[in-house]
């Protein structure tokens, strides 16, 4: 799985392998839901219905882990560019864990009752994989579940699982902003309205939204991830483009930050005497992940029974997911948890030296390499444990 990563919306090889495994374990398999998405269904008598979800897609990253099974794959991305592809977010681990859990549940049908749905979602990274499955009629194609669960590998010690009730992952918004100036010769700034200066002011000024407009208790992240303008030292260009990424944990903060971005951009254009208003293009939006209180307390208690001290209460994460769109569409509660994946000895050495941030590669890094064990066993047990809280 790791050596054969596929970009979002291209996960057909992965889906075929998964469908084959599920079919051999007695699941009724619904393939081709929203592209490569699929659901395996195992009916086992009267009882509740539980949905377990894994995402399948990889990233346009050149893997540099040194693993013997490292990816050397390239593929064409959505814009037709050939890019390196790697499982730099660990979704291969999610797929492997869910296939493992599905097989165990199938082999132990005398120990539970109800219906198990295992859902393999395409295109989590571009943010529209869950939506594509929903638009393709997911809700009508499978029985409505009572509860949903999902997990994600994070750079914590392998063998540990962590969750929290309430807010867990941030929402994420991206915005493309184009500011318009007036181009001129580099020697004649008096003839220009310089969009490079406007963009530079904005990069700094936008940072004051989080630091000056939000309370210290109101977490948010604003990153200007891209600034593009001009082609030459002696030409003042016509326009500049900024890509802004905003992470928040509740809708009121989200609206405050997005409105402040627009206010500051408009004011900067006016201050500079821009001949034309700025353009705003809202891109991908990931919803926040908010774990149901009651279900999450139940899951935390079950994890403590199974994992003891290795079950933790997680911190808020400034990462984002589209998983919650699926339970939200069914109108059901969910719990999402973090699965540790870093060699525990490596992690504790970095902790002793105070160098966790420098030494431990994070998701999306070319060096991110979850250790196979105990990550795989822990992820399988976590999924089975969660399913059995309802079905067992
Ligand atoms: Zn990711
Ligand atoms: Zn991911």
Describe it for me?
This protein has 392 residues and is an alpha+beta fold. It has two domains: 12-169 and 288-391, Aminopeptidase (3-Layer(aba) Sandwich); 171-285, Alpha-Beta Plaits. 34% of the residues lie in helices and 28% in strands. The protein has helices at 12-24, 91-107, 129-135, 138-141, 195-205, 207-213, 251-272, 293-307, 325-330, 344-353, 356-359, 375-391; strands spanning 28-33, 37-44, 49-55, 74-76, 82-84, 114-121, 147-157, 161-163, 166-169, 171-180, 184-185, 220-229, 235-236, 239-248, 279-286, 289-291, 311-313, 334-342. An eight-stranded mixed sheet has the order 1-2-6-3-7-18-8-17, sandwiched between helices. A four-stranded antiparallel sheet has the order 12-14-10-15, covered by helices on one side. A two-stranded antiparallel ribbon has the order 4-5. β4 (74-76) and β5 (82-84) form a beta hairpin. α2 (91-107) packs across α12, α5 runs antiparallel to α7 (251-272) and α8 crosses α12. It is elongated and about 80 Å long. The chain binds zinc ion (ZN) (2 copies). Residues 89, 91, 124, 152 line the site of one zinc ion (ZN).
């Amino acid at each position: 799985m790791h050596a054969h990563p596929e970009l979002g919306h291209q996960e057909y090889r992965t889906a075929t392998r998964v469908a084959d495994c599920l079919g051999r374990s007695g699941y009724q398999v619904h393939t081709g839901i929203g592209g490569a998405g699929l659901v395996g269904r195992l009916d086992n008598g009267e009882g509740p219905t539980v949905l377990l979800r894994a995402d399948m897609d990889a990233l346009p990253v050149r893997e540099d882990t040194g693993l013997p099974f490292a990816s050397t794959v390239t593929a064409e991305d959505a814009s037709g560019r050939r890019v390196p592809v790697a499982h730099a977010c660990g979704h291969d681990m999610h797929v492997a864990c869910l296939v493992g859990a599905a097989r165990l549940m199938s082999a132990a049908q005398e120990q539970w009752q109800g219906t198990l749905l295992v859902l393999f979602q395409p295109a989590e990274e571009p943010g529209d994989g869950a939506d594509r499955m929903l638009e393709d009629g997911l809700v009508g194609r499978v029985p409505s579940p009572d509860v949903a669960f999902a997990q994600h590998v994070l750079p914590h010690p392998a063998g540990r699982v962590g969750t929290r009730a309430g807010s867990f992952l941030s929402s994420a918004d991206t915005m493309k902003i184009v500011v318009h100036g007036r181009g001129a010769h580099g020697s004649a700034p008096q003839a220009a309205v310089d969009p490079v200066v406007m963009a530079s002011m904005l990069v700094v000024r936008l940072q004051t939204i989080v630091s000056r407009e939000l309370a210290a208790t109101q977490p948010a992240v604003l990153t200007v991830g891209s600034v593009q303008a001009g082609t030459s030292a002696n030409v003042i260009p016509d326009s500049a483009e900024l890509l802004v990424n905003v992470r928040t944990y509740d809708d009121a903060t989200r609206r405050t930050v997005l409105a402040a971005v627009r206010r500051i951009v408009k004011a900067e254009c006016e201050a500079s005497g821009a001949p034309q208003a700025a353009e705003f293009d809202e891109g991908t939006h990931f919803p926040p992940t908010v774990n149901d209180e009651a279900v999450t307390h139940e899951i935390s208690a079950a994890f403590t029974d199974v994992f003891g001290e290795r079950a933790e209460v997680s911190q808020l994460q400034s990462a984002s997911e589209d998983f919650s769109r699926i339970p939200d569409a069914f109108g059901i509660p969910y719990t999402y948890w973090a699965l540790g994946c870093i060699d525990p000895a490596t992690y504790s050495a970095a902790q002793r030296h105070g160098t966790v941030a420098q030494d431990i590669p994070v998701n999306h890094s070319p060096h991110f390499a979850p250790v196979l064990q105990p990550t795989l066993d822990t992820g399988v047990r976590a999924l089975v444990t969660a399913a059995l809280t309802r079905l067992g």
